[in-house]
């Protein structure tokens, strides 16, 4: 009787089992044994190849009525064949066509055939065989046709700046001279800026304040007395004044004074002249 009840109970248990699930588990165990482990051996590593970092220090170097010059610092990447893509469009024209420059191999580019007096948005990305980086955005106005073109500020040393520019796109041969405006107060109105007439297309500002901000702009004066619109304003910061320990005289002076203070004080027993004594055998 007991054996009969045991057989009935065993039949009820197996009747409620999901044989399909059991078969799947068994097949997984067999496949795991057949394929083995996916762990790498010792001192072996697997690196995920990711897209490069975006370029850094992207900036507009200069602009004209129909071109924009852009420069950047190379993106960090282990790949040597790194290139760059630039997509640009009119900023406030959502339906405007997006233009693209692909496969740029250097760190500078001049984008031509843009509209004058227009606000453009630029997106710069780094590209490798593993993908494209996130974009860096720049926004810049192009110059009017009558303004000085490609105005550029260059640091000659810590507190000396050279300002250069190219003639206007229109009325080039009618330019009499230029007027350069500059200020060290960014909040000042244009009437408060200092101005210097310049006959050429270059001027040097020496002996500026160290570690200070300056703004520069230029306008063209034509032979009939008219003036062009102002060029884009340049915002420049001079460098800090650095002291080199080998060039500062106070350090040597302090050493001399310390040596004088270390000398013993003279008294009435101190000999005025140092004498060298010698002994003689009699």
Automatic annotation (TrEMBL):
Q: Coiled-coil stretches, from where to where?
A: none
Q: Which InterPro entries does the UniProt entry name for this protein?
A: ECM_Regulatory_Proteins, FN3_dom, FN3_sf, Ig-like_fold
A Pfam family recorded for this sequence = fn3
UniProt domain Fibronectin type-III: residue ranges: 54-146, 147-241
- List the SUPFAM superfamilies: Fibronectin type III (SSF49265)
- Name of the protein described by the UniProt record: Fibronectin type-III domain-containing protein
Cite the Gene3D superfamilies for this sequence.
Immunoglobulins
Answer whether the UniProt record assigns the keyword Repeat to this protein: yes
Source species, please? Parelaphostrongylus tenuis (Meningeal worm)
* Swiss-Prot/TrEMBL keywords: Repeat
